[in-house]
């Protein structure tokens, strides 16, 4: 599904600010795997996710997605498989556009943005039904600009937006870090439910060890640009929150 | 002719310019100042073609194409060569000055006894009524075109690009391509405005574009302020605001001139008016 071979990325190479964000990363991710990545600040978690998404292009190594070598592909081309949820709720949506406009873009993520008007009553009804499932009362505010909503509301909407169009891979970079504990839990449960329902291959970055223990089929610990631990299968299912806490001692 | 009626007509001629600035500055959030050059280019190209070939449709089409071309160049320099948008605009604007001058071969081309667009609809006998009808018809077509365009899937992508680039890339949109197209449309509109004004005033002049960006920006801001007061957010509403803003701005200028102020001070006054419009919301906040 996703194959990273010898991926390295150095920022500001040759300057005093040089940072080796990713060092020789090798990672194979199979279909429908749900990976949780943990690690200290600056250990390269986001860089790894961005390398997969194509927002950063590695200095060396190869990236394969679904059998396509995509190493030089820009992010917008890889979006035909990849949907993303960002830490900053403001990044995943276009603030000044209405909810329905945002959903329209999400619904044609993998398609051509054509010169026809795609927002018709059928489309609106479909969006209204999906938003109603969140139970946040947002289904009656389709014409409202999405910037008027709270971070939690926006993050909940981005989750549904991710699966408006075909998606195979879902990348979540600290999706609930900016939210209060209760909203954060709701968002994580919703994400987990969507991942299962749509059989997505997913990578979640989080600092919340409770979430690490509760979600995912495989867990990866990153340290200074490398993968320090990579645990899956039965070994993973035996781990408890205590074991994860020990990683950070 | 009535002084204020002339101002309204001039305002209608500048609507395309206002729309162009609305697209670059408001939809795409790009401070594009190619304007002075592409507006003049539109006027120059039209004047040359009208004098040589006597064809209004060809003149207007060529002007729009020339504007589209200059906007694409600014967009290319900005997105592909990674030059700051302001600088990219200044570069193309400066280059266009030479282009315009060499196209004309002199600094001014008069259109004497040459049929222009305002001679169409000849069944309307009265000249003023005819000019006004034609300008209103063009304005109507423009708002129809733009409000339809901006509501299409492509139009939503355009609007999102100026809003959240991270999101737009994640939605499979090539933001560089989008910006180039946006600046192309925007400058095409500005060149159309240059062509309409040239035909209206009966000449193209190398200096006709100086400070024109401030006029357009002021119009857009007046319109936006008005529409936000009326709580109108829809795209067609905002575009309509640009039309009102453009006409309103010309009326203010006409009023100021009617007070007997030296026309040489016109640009100074224009700048002052825009300054006031820009500061108005801030002043209101301060006083609250
Ligand atoms: N665009 C960039 N330019 C320069 N340096 C960068 C850039 N992006 C990341 N870095 C550096 O690369 C290193 C890894 O950053 P990264 O964002 O991947 O860390 P992270 O594990 O996601 O951290 P956090 O938990 O704080 O989000 C850091 O030292 C960071 O400063
Ligand atoms: Mg990070």
Question: How do you describe this structure in short?
Answer:
Chain A is of the alpha/beta class. Helix content of chain A is 33%, strand content 25%. In chain A, helix 5 runs parallel beside helix 6 (181-197).
Straight-line distance between termini of chain A: 34 Å
What is the count of distinct domains of chain B? 1
What are the segments of chain B in which pLDDT stays under 50 over at least 5 consecutive residues?
none
The portion of residues forming beta strands of chain A comes to 15-25%
Percent range for β-strand residues of chain B: under 5%
Largest sheet of chain B: 2 strands, antiparallel
**Helical fraction of chain B:** over 70%
Question: pLDDT under 50 segments of chain A (min length 5)?
Answer: none
The number of distinct β-strands of chain A equals 10
What does it look like?
The complex is a heterodimer of chains A (249) and B (288). Chain A is of the alpha/beta class. Chain A has a single domain, classed as P-loop containing nucleotide triphosphate hydrolases (Rossmann fold, 3-Layer(aba) Sandwich), CATH 3.40.50.300. Chain A is 33% helix and 25% strand. In chain A, β4 and β5 form a beta hairpin. In chain A, α5 packs parallel to α6. Chain A starts with a strand and ends with a helix. Chain B is mostly helical and 288 residues long. Chain B is 76% helix and 2% strand. Chain B contains twelve helices and two strands, in the order αααααβααααβααα. Chain B has a two-stranded antiparallel sheet. In chain B, α3 crosses α9. Chain B is globular, with a radius of gyration of 19 Å. The termini of chain B are far apart. The structure holds adenosine-5'-triphosphate (ATP) and magnesium ion. The site of magnesium ion has 3 residues of chain A, from α1. The site of adenosine-5'-triphosphate (ATP) has 12 residues of chain A, from β2 and α1.
């Amino acid at each position: 599904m996703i194959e990273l071979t010898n991926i390295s990325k150095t920022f500001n190479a040759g300057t005093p600010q040089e940072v080796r964000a990713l060092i020789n990363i090798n990672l194979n991710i199979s279909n429908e795997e749900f990976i949780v990545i943990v690690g200290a600040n600056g250990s390269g978690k986001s860089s790894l996710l961005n390398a997969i998404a194509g927002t950063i292009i590695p200095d060396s190594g190869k990236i394969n997605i679904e059998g396509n070598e995509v190493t030089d592909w820009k992010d917008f081309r890889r979006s035909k498989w990849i949907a993303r949820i960002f830490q900053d709720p403001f990044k995943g949506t276009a603030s000044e556009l209405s909810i329905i406009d945002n959903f329209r873009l999400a619904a044609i993520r993998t398609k051509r943005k054509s010169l026809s008007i795609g927002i018709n009553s059928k489309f609106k009804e479909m969006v209204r039904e999906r938003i109603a499932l969140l139970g946040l009362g947002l289904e009656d505010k389709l014409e409202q600009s999405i910037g008027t909503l709270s971070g939690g509301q926006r993050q909940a909407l981005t989750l549904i937006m991710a699966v408006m169009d075909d998606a195979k891979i879902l990348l979540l970079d600290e999706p609930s870090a900016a939210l209060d504990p209760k909203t954060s839990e709701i968002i994580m449960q919703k994400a987990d439910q969507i991942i299962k329902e749509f059989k997505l291959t997913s990578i979640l970055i989080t600092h919340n060890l409770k979430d690490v223990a509760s979600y995912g089929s495989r867990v990866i610990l990153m340290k200074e640009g490398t993968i320090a631990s990579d645990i899956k299968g039965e070994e993973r299912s035996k781990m408890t929150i205590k074991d994860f806490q020990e990683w950070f001692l | 002719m009535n002084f204020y009626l002339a101002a309204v007509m001039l305002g209608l001629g500048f609507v395309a310019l206002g729309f162009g600035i609305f697209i670059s500055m408001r939809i795409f959030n790009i401070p594009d100042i190619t304007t002075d050059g592409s507006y003049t280019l539109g006027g120059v190209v039209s004047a040359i073609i009208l004098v040589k070939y006597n064809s209004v449709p060809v003149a207007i089409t060529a002007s729009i194409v020339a504007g589209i071309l200059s906007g694409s160049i600014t967009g290319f320099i900005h997105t592909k060569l990674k030059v700051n948008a302001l600088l990219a605009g200044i570069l193309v604007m400066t280059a266009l000055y030479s282009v315009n001058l060499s196209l004309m071969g002199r600094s001014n081309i008069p259109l004497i006894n040459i049929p222009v667009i305002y001679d169409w609809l000849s069944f309307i006998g009265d000249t003023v009524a005819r000019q006004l009808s034609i300008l209103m018809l063009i304005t109507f077509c423009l708002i129809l075109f733009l409000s339809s365009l901006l509501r299409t899937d492509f139009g939503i992508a355009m609007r999102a690009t100026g809003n959240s680039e991270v999101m737009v890339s994640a939605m499979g949109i090539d933001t560089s391509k989008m910006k180039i197209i946006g600046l192309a449309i925007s400058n095409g509109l500005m060149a159309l405005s240059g062509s309409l004004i040239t035909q209206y005033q009966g000449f193209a002049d190398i200096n006709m574009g100086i400070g024109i960006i401030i006029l357009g920006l002021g119009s857009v801001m007046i319109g936006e302020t008005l529409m936000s007061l009326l709580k109108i957010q829809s795209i067609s509403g905002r575009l309509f605001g640009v039309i009102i803003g453009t006409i309103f701005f010309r009326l203010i200028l006409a009023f100021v001139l009617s007070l007997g102020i030296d026309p040489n001070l016109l640009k100074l006054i224009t700048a002052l008016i825009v300054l006031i419009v820009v500061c108005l919301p801030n002043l209101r906040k301060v006083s609250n």
